[in-house]
Hints:
Blueprint: E1 16-19, H1 26-30, E2 39-40, H2 46-49, H3 52-55, E3 65-66, E4 69-70, H4 85-100, E5 105-108, H5 120-123, H6 132-150, E6 155-160, E7 178-182, H7 187-190, E8 202-206, H8 223-235, E9 238-243, H9 254-263, H10 272-284, H11 288-309, E10 317-318, E11 326-327, H12 332-339, H13 342-353
Parallel strand pairs: 1-9, 2-5, 5-6, 6-7, 7-8, 8-9
Antiparallel strand pairs: 3-4, 10-11
Amino acid sequence: SVPAVLNVSKTPVLRLNTAHPAGGGFYDLAHNRFPRVDEVFGGHTGERAVPPETYFESHPEYFALSGGERLKRGDHNAQYCLSNPEVRELIYRDLASWLDRGYGSVDLGQPDGFRKCACDACAGLYDTGDDWGEKIWIFNRRVAERLYQSNPAGQVTMMSYILTAAPPRTFTRFPPNTCIMLTGTNEEDIAPWRGIEVPRGFTGYIYNWCPNLGSRYTPMRTPGFVETQVKRLAANHIQAIRRDGPGQLFGLEGPVYYVMGRMFDAPEHNAAGDLVPEFCDAAFGRSAWYMRSFYDRLYHAITLYSDHIGTRCDVWTYQPIEGRRRKTVTDPFRLIGFLYPPRLLAALDADLTQ
């Protein structure tokens, strides 16, 4: 017989939790990692709508003017003339075409490495002067308004990223079909949005396993880091997350992936201090004590990197006395030499030997 207690239903904290490459196996589902089903992810969506290989030769005026030349770059870096009505129409048509095919949500975001168009029409666009973040927000809102008229059931997920990291200044309410993807999910990133009405809520983009400053072959986060992160995401009603880097170090970071997955089962009640022993007991049996020692040493050693130096943390970049902000770490080998001194490596090796 089937126990009555198994007749349950559950609404997950997240509707989507995915990375590239995406996964949908038992491991993923058990860790609250849910793949996209009817959502079209693009992030930087201009090149999908106006591919330079199709349009640059015949319509160079579609592309941003800089230094007297039209810009042509690929891999999410093609830059566009936002004042061009045909560019705006192509972007709208691209999004509408996905919704017409039955998808429930489409993404809308400016090019990566954004460079403004220097033409006169763009300078006067929307009367925002040189505030390109505001130009992009106004354009995105108008696209969403058109889509709400043509595809009212569909959702538009707009990217809040670099120029659009701050909310718009000229309006405080988005159309009913709008969701915002926050590419910064720390408290200082979330707080400015609390006075903005976003009817479809927020999603998040997290950089836990993006090897911007370190090595993709060494662990990047600790169980304590992901516990704090999950509690913050849940408390702020982040309904979906996309991970920059899937996390693939199942030996060195296995407890971290497990803690993050289990935290989403019950963010208010679970804790890393309970979940790491749970993982070690299940994974290592009689060797669990030594592996708990191993992970304790390892995560203590990388806490400074995990919590402060890693991508999007508080000191991952700094402002020099002159020029643009710089990454704090530019040579991963120096960082590895600092985090893993010989005495630590010998202790970790002894734990593994046991």
